[in-house]
Each structure stands twice: as C-alpha cells, then as structure tokens.
Design a protein that fits this description.
The complex is a heterodimer of chains A (168) and B (248). Chain A is mostly helical. Chain A contains seven helices and two strands. In chain A, strands 1-2 form a two-stranded antiparallel ribbon. Chain B has 248 residues and is an alpha/beta fold. Chain B is built from eight helices and ten strands. In chain B, the strands form two sheets. A six-stranded mixed sheet of chain B has the order 6-7-8-3-9-10, sandwiched between helices. In chain B, strands 2-1-4-5 form a four-stranded antiparallel sheet, with helices on one face. Chain B is globular. The chains are: A mainly alpha (168), B alpha/beta (248).
Amino acid sequence: MRLSLLALLAKEPAHGYELKQALEQIFGSAYPPPNIGQIYVTLGRLEKDGLVRAVDVEQSNRPNKKVYYLTAAGREALDVWVDEPTEGPRVRDEFFMKLVLAPMTGIADRMALINRQRRHYLGLMRDLNELADRTDRGDYVALLLIEGAMLHLQADLDWLERCQEDLS
Amino acid sequence: MSLPPVVNTVNLVKIYQNGGVPVPAVRGIDLRVEAGQFVAITGPSGSGKSTLVHMLGGLDARTSGEIWLDGKRADTLSESAWALLRRQKIGFVFQFFNLVANMTVADNVELPALLAGASAREARERREHLLGELGLTDRADASPAQLAGGEQQRVALARALANKPSLLLADEPTGNLDSRNTRDVLRLLGEVHREGQSIILVTHDARVASLADRVVSLLDGEIVDDGVIGTGRRRPRGTAGDVVELRG
C-alpha cells in the first residue's frame, strides 16, 4: 500500500480518510477495501522514512486533522517504482517441486498429480468465470484483474499439458 | 425408464495410413456421455481429440470399435444415413468453419434448420436469435469471405445450433476469438446446456472447459483422466479482490 499512497499524494496533499476513499473509488472491488487503521500506520511509516510529511490543519469544532504531502525523497521513490520493470509471475513453485520429487517418495505417480492439479485449476477457472459474470460491466479495473488471472491460469494449464507429454 | 446415453463408444480406434505407415490417432476409447451432459475434451495437439469428435459426428470413419448414439448403433451407418442423422440431431462446429462460400451469413445459418424441416419463419427467427446472441446481427447479409476469422467462427457456431441439435459437437469453438467474443460464446453454450442439449467439445481454452460438467483428458489417443471439475474456491462468494488470493 505504501506506493499507492505515495502515488495519490503526488496528485495532491490529502488526509488519511480522503486517501481511503480515493483507493476505494479507483480500485472498486478489484482490491479489498483498505481499513483506515492500516492507512494511518502506513502513513506513519512513510513519514518516519522521510517520504511524506504532515501538517496539522485546524478545524472548527473538531480536532485538528493531519494533511500529508509528498517530500522530494517520496517523489523520487515513486518515480523509481513507476519506471522500473515489474517482476513477472513465477512458475508454481510448490507444484513443480511435488512433480519433480514425487517419484522419490514412491507414494504418488506424476500422472495422478498432474490430473488432480488440472481439475483444481479448472475449478479455479470456473470461479473466475462466475466472478466475471457478477462483476459490473463498467468496473474495468476489476474485469482486467480477473482476465489477467484467467490468462495466468490458462498458461499454467498449458504448461501442465507439456509436463504430461514429457514426463509420462 | 432412463434415457440411453447420447453417446457411447466401445473400444473405439482410428488408425490413419501415412504413406503406408499406420499412425494410431485414437487407441481404444470407451466414452459414455449421458443425455444433457456437457463434456469438454482436452489434451495436447496430436492426442486424438479432433479425430474423436469427427468420428462421433460421422465425419471420419472408425477403424474398429463401436459408436452408439441415443442407444442406436451408428458406426455401421452409410454416409447418407449419417447425413440424415446429423441433419436431425447433431450440430457440428468445425475448427476451420466450413461455411458455404457463395451463401450469405443468414443463409448459412438458416439452411440446417430448413433441412431439418423448420418453416421459413422458424428458421429466420432462430437465425436472428443466434446471430443476436453472438453479436453478429449486422453481418447477416455479408458473405463468409467478408468476415474476420473470429466472425466466421461464431457464424459456424450459430449454424451448428440452428436446428436445435440434441447433440452439439465442436472442435475448438473459441480458437479464433478474443476475450469479449469468447464471453458471448460461453453465454450461448451455457444457455444451450441449460435447455438440455448435450455438448461435447474439444478445447484448449480453460474458460470453455471450466463450464463443462466433466472434463476428459486425452494423451496419445487414450483417456488419461475423466472426471467432474471440483470447486477451487475456499469461500462461497468473493469479489475481484479475492483474485489475488485465488491465485496465491
């Protein structure tokens, strides 16, 4: 959440609750709604690291509120994050370990492992289909996230097929 | 009394001759599909999937073994008897569409319904419904050559469904579609399935396979797995935010 808060503050200074609302509005159902406590904890850490700073703003009839703004160091951290390539997904490490090590245990044959894994992936795909069906058509952020998950799952299934061809 | 299985094969074998060398494509498949079931067939290329569905539709002759459709022996039928059977109750979606080049999209889709005995009005209404579901209403008067690959593929599906076949056979019906058009096809297949028609389709596309009641996996011409798809979810309902957890 650190970098999404920095990005929002790059646009304009804001207090914690405004940041929470902005995240909800941008991501919709695509990410679980952040709780306000997490946001304040994260802002506190960013402040300690010198990436944001806070000023107290007086309010009539209410306690002062803290408005956060980005520092030059914060701006730089954000730029580095946006500019660098993002790590790609990794192959399902745990399943691959099982597949490679299965013959040594003498308890599982690879074909059975692959078949079970395929059914499991297809079950996940069915869930994603249902999720896509009940997601609002206008919620592009959520739909793109679901589609990304589907494409990864398809790649996992294609790869299982390769394993089955070459290991059987 | 229970219905006979819509498809039942007994030790079905197909061996192609390649320059005098026998190449086994399907090696002894026993497949029983109950009426109303939706079965997806998966497997690497060369595993015999296409050959299997072609034999089930009478489009490729078996080398040995038996094919029973709705409780009646079918592998011994003549070509003309197969043609009649397809007209009455089988819809087939070819991987490479096989649309009639000198007929419009509308006529391509209406023809099977007319051949099966529908009135001109019934055929037209059915065609309008199917093209509408697949987002092709405004392509009705085009000729197949004017269509993109993904459009031709959807027309091929509409044509296969025109005579409300009790059995739909399809070979990679979404192979040329982008994700939005795939969604239209998935919705239509779901509708066909709910109406009680049986579906057997070959697919690489996990979105399609995951809709099926049952997935049959082939490898080297044999069934290596055959079962229902479990549910992957750890909780009953979720939002897109749970995608991250689903994948984790």
